Amino acid sequence: MKPFALEVKNLSVRLGNNLVLDNLNFEIEEGSITAIIGPNGSGKSTLLKAIIGLIPFQGEILIYGKPNFEQRKILGYVPQSYEIDKFLPMTVKEFLEFNLTKETFPKKEHLNHHLKEMDIVQFENKQLKDLSGGQLQRVLFCRALVNDPKILLLDEPTSGIDLVGQREFYEIIHFLNTHHRLTILMVTHEITIVHHFANHVLCLNKKLICNGPVNLLFKEEILKELYGREIFVYPFNKPPIQK
Ligand SMILES: Nc1ncnc2c1ncn2[C@@H]1O[C@H](COP(=O)(O)OP(=O)(O)OP(=O)(O)O)[C@@H](O)[C@H]1O
Ligand SMILES: [Mg+2]
Questions:
Q1: Which of 6, 16, 36, 214 has the fewest CB atoms within 10 Å, i.e. the most exposed one?
Q2: How many domains does the chain have?
Q3: CA 115 to centroid of ligand 2, rounded, Å
Q4: Residue 82 resides in a domain
Q5: What is the pLDDT of residues 155-197, one digit of tens each?
Q6: In a domain, 240, yes or no
């Protein structure tokens, strides 16, 4: 059996008077791609923030068997785009260099490789505030990769990206997963794409409603429980990425 990249035990999060996550328990296998789905306000971003160690929680979060706060270095995180301060007075390249750790800074030329891979070179000298939504999203994705993480946490990474950009994005994710064995957790609302692309799904609505293979998403009763009403999913004829 593959080792667990992530184990979450009795995880609860309270924000103000709000119980936002209620006693979650699940494990994520190394090398898997997991989609986290659920309605607005269901706690998806909160879950990623707890894993990354940005907010206090009750329970246990283990990354490769160790408490999450000891493993911060092997996590890459792309926050939901509106949570970023675009007005930092920095160019794209400065912003990315600024995020290198003391371990990765000496390997700075490695950054150029990521800039090319993410097609960022053409706007690397632009100020962050002058980027389009999709360009900013690519920069944030690049930032999550520069320190060579083992686990990537992505919060709606393709929102605001055009269809070609989305397709390229999924190809990169697929490549990172298959060639670098990166474990990927991704919050998304794109259920049909997820079906062809992820191999595991967590359905969240304060509690864990489902946890298992992606075809759970096509079970009407699960979607109904998750969203509180009937949901129709229209599968694509052709998978965007062959698994
Ligand atoms: N700092 C805070 N104080 C109190 N409540 C908060 C705080 N931040 C978030 N919440 C609440 O926690 C709940 C979960 O928020 P979260 O951002 O995790 O949802 P989400 O599933 O990511 O939603 P979306 O799909 O809209 O991004 C919401 O009801 C939100 O109002
Ligand atoms: Mg969110």
A1: 16
A2: 1
A3: 27
A4: yes
A5: 998 887 788 778 878 888 888 898 888 999 999 988 777 777 8
A6: no
